[in-house]
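Handoff note, outgoing to incoming analyst
You'll be picking up this chain. Sequence as last confirmed:
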Amino acid sequence: MAFCISCGQMQADGTRFCRFCGGQQPGEQLIARLRMEAEAIRFRMQQMQTQQMQQANYGQQQNQGRRW
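Most recent structure output, in case you need it:
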């Protein structure tokens, strides 16, 4: 299921015009491209979170090795 880009009502996949407001919906090629871009962003965000966790763990290990 998809949602109208104009009014937000739920639409069947592949709908060209919203049955509620009549707004034209994006074509399948645009939707496919946007999904690919969203997946690439999601992958990059996961990489960044993993790096941050590794850096935080490394910092904790460094602090544990110090004796005051």
